[in-house]
Design a protein that fits this description.
The protein is globular. A hairpin with a 2-residue loop joins strand 13 and strand 14. Strands 10-19-15-11-14-13-12 form a 7-stranded mixed beta sheet. Strands 1, 2, 7, 16, 17 and 18 form a 6-stranded mixed beta sheet that branches. The chain has a two-stranded antiparallel sheet with strand order 3-6. By secondary structure, it is an alpha+beta fold. The protein folds into 2 domains: about 200 residues, no CATH class; about 120 residues, no CATH class.
């Protein structure tokens, strides 16, 4: 059967047997560790949430206590949305062989706008396992590793609003407006987190259009870019909600990072001091960072321009760490399905046809900000030609 990440919608018929998406649930520290050590941005999330040194080893990470910065685990009361045997439910998750389960939702109408649902499901025909009599290929392990790798990549994409990110639920990022390009946007016209940015100026983030970078020649110094960035950052730090530059994460596109690398290289050659504009804040987490105005600056391949900005340009987000994070449903914190023996693959049932092993990973989460004004974005920076 086809593999996919998330299924939502309605169906016209229902098998009479109610089937669970997973017969047993377990929190997988391995998947969580992989998620917070795979991409540059999620590494920083992990470093802030669990401590930089705890990202160096799975055993250390498993024993780490969350710091409360950038990752928040929330709980609440469950309620079923729609009757279990209804033929036309409001939403569902595809489970084994096309069956579905009603979606678990919070009480009240607000649940639709509270959580994203991200699911990755893998199937293995039993015949494939049985035919592999020599055991030369561990099909179950290979599929599990592929699923985990895809899942942690998609988690990064969804938070950052990657253009090719999968739909993460019946109310995906384009409706919730909680991915990074909407949380820290250029156009202040949407309702984010239930608060209208149009009607409430305190719910507007900072933004600066930088349409020229300056520089040129062998010692290329994009000084216009640097000066406007510092001006925007200094302006933002005058707000009461803001704190010092040590509490900022500057996250850019790859092209922006290469612009800034030109400046660092030129200054290093000119002064003979080497690459002096480097931050060591996330070194232990394996993330190299430049430094701008006292803040650490990184890039991630999944970063896209803010809402309203011109496509195919570069950008830099000024994320105020104390007021930005990802809320994860405590009971569905990188939930990995399996069977009662501890195997992460659920065995087929007698009435299943064809016979198929199934495993899935699920996380319910949403990115958020608790204050809008301390955040800023530089946008419409000319596309880097490098």
């Amino acid at each position: 059967m086809a593999e996919s990440n998330s299924f939502t919608g309605t169906v016209s018929s229902l098998r009479t047997t109610y089937q669970y998406l997973a017969s047993r649930s377990a929190y997988s520290k391995k998947i969580q560790f992989a998620c917070f050590t795979k991409n540059a941005f999620t590494r920083v999330l992990g470093a802030e949430a669990f401590g930089v040194t705890n990202l160096t080893d799975l055993n250390t990470f498993s024993a780490a206590k969350p710091t409360g910065r950038m990752i928040r685990y929330d709980s609440g009361v469950y309620a079923f949305g729609g009757a279990i045997f209804a033929d036309t439910p409001t939403s569902y998750f595809v489970g084994r062989l096309g069956s579905y389960t009603p979606e678990l939702v919070e009480g009240g109408d607000e649940y639709k706008y509270s959580w994203h649902n991200m699911v990755n499901t893998q199937f293995i025909p039993v015949a494939d396992v049985e035919d592999n009599t020599s055991g030369d290929i561990n099909i179950k392990m290979q599929k599990m590793e592929a699923m985990q790798s895809k899942y942690v990549e998609d988690f990064n994409y969804v938070v950052l609003g990657h253009a090719s990110a999968p739909d993460t639920g019946s109310m995906g990022p384009s409706v919730v407006y909680s991915d990074l390009p909407n949380l820290i946007s250029y156009t202040q016209t949407r309702t984010v987190g239930g608060i209208s940015k149009t009607s409430n100026t305190y719910w507007n983030n900072g933004a600066a259009a930088i349409t020229a970078v300056g520089g040129g020649g062998d010692l290329d110094r994009p000084l216009i870019l640097r000066r406007k960035l510092i001006k925007r950052m200094n302006t933002t730090m005058t707000y009461a909600e803001s704190t010092g530059p040590q509490d900022y994460l500057l996250l850019g596109t790859q092209g922006f990072h290469q612009y800034y690398d030109r400046l660092q290289y030129a200054d290093g050659v000119s002064t003979g001091k080497g690459d002096f504009g480097v931050s060591s804040r996330y070194d232990a987490a394996g993330v190299q960072a430049h430094a701008l105005n006292g803040a650490a600056m990184i890039w991630d391949a999944a970063v896209t321009v803010p809402y309203g900005a011109t496509a195919a340009t570069e950008c830099l987000y000024g994320i105020h760490i104390p007021n930005f994070g990802v809320a994860i449903r405590k009971e569905q914190n990188f939930l990995l399905s399996g069977d009662s023996t501890g195997d992460m693959w659920e065995k087929p049932r007698e009435h299943d046809s064809p016979k198929t092993l199934v495993s899935s990973i699920r996380t319910r989460f949403t990115p958020f900000v608790t204050a809008m004004r301390p955040h800023w974005v530089a946008y419409n920076i000319p596309a880097c030609p490098d």
